[in-house]
Design brief:
By secondary structure, the chain is mainly beta.
Length: about 230
């Protein structure tokens, strides 16, 4: 019943040697763990009942202990087939990660086995991640640009273009300077229901794409700054 992973992880999130009983229709939450920068979560889950496994990431403000309701972002979700091992590999770029299992009510408790570990990225991947995370060697003028954009909510005319499509773009970084969530996506169909949630004061790299980036505010006008490097 166990799916094993080779090599040594940075920390273990769930012990595959243990089978956890989940009350019929209940929710299992693996204790949130703090990540060390860019990490990779590798794991497997096996249940004798139908259910949904979800991997979530989160940003916690300084001195605010977990859990914080409403701030988790899903990065992986799958409906499990009873008796079949589901293996997942998820890149984690935010501060905390947790795994949940939601049991489907059938009148009987579920037996769930989870094996999940946080792994450090390799030296090569680390160098790439650092380059992607911090665009610090941008030569402005002919080789880059920056600015700030006001992003509106749906009632105010959003979504708005944060960064236009640019075939010469090498790297892009955006930051939400506002006090409400801004949802971003690669077309003007982005909404609060389908966009990537950029939390207040959060900044992220958006690299390896030359696409346009749209944003729509959760509420009220929010200012988003951007910095991009061009060829």
């Amino acid at each position: 019943m166990t799916a094993t992973l080779a090599q040594k992880p940075v920390q273990m999130i769930a012990d595959s040697a243990k089978v956890v009983t989940v009350v019929d229709g209940g929710l299992l939450i693996i204790t949130p763990r703090q990540c060390q920068g860019f990490s990779q979560l590798r794991g497997s889950i096996l249940s004798d009942k139908a259910g949904t496994v979800t991997v979530q990431q989160n940003v916690y403000p300084n001195l605010a202990p977990p859990p914080l309701a409403g701030t988790w972002q899903n990065v992986y979700s799958k409906v499990l087939v009873p008796g079949t091992v589901d293996q997942f590999v998820v890149d984690v770029i935010l501060d905390y990660v947790q795994i949940t299992y939601q049991d489907v009510p059938t009148g009987a408790d579920a037996n769930v086995e989870i094996n999940a570990n946080l792994w450090p990225i390799s030296a090569l991947e680390s160098n790439r991640a650092a380059a992607a995370a911090d665009v610090v060697k941008v030569q402005l003028g002919a080789n880059g640009n920056y600015g700030q954009v006001t992003v509106h909510d749906a009632g105010g005319g959003g979504p708005d273009i944060i960064a236009a499509a640019n075939l010469t773009r090498k790297a892009l970084r955006i930051k939400n300077l506002g006090d409400r969530v801004v949802y971003i996506g690669f077309d003007n169909a982005v909404t609060a229901a389908n966009g990537f949630a950029l939390q207040p004061q959060q900044d992220i790299p958006i690299n390896f794409t030359t696409s346009v980036v749209y944003g729509i505010s959760e509420a009220n006008d929010q200012v988003v700054s951007y910095l991009q490097e061009l060829e």
